[in-house]
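Example record

The entry below shows one chain as it appears in the dataset: sequence first, then structure tokens.
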Amino acid sequence: MRRRTGMSLVEMILVLALVAILTALALPPYATVRDRASVRAAATASVAAFDAARALALTRGRHAAIRIDTAAARIVVHTLRDTTLRVPLGTSWGVRLAASRDSSAVAPDGLGYGAANLRLILIRGAAADTITVSRLGRVSRR
């Protein structure tokens, strides 16, 4: 007499059904965590772009301009005619970008130059983060 080893088809279907149910329960929290992580990473990269613009203005002794392209969800740093940094927030982290202004500038002394405060809002799913750049160039996250 042979001993039976392995699983029957019914047992296999039950195991696969259990795995499918557990996966379906785990997906919504995973999506929320992924959205928050993407927004946090994009916010960190945005703050780094403003810091880089300030450092460029100080080291080169020239104005640095920061352009915010909300349609492409991208931040671009310029010094004179040179594009020195591009931060593609939409393609890298899948975030949408809203801004109160389309540009900011940093003077050669490292202070903000020109108009009023700038507010950036980074959004992905239900997650959002706000970055505020003061008129003097101070960058803060909330």
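Notes for this example: The mean pLDDT is 90. Strands lie at 64-69, 74-79, 82-88, 96-99, 103-106, 118-124, 127-133, 139-141.
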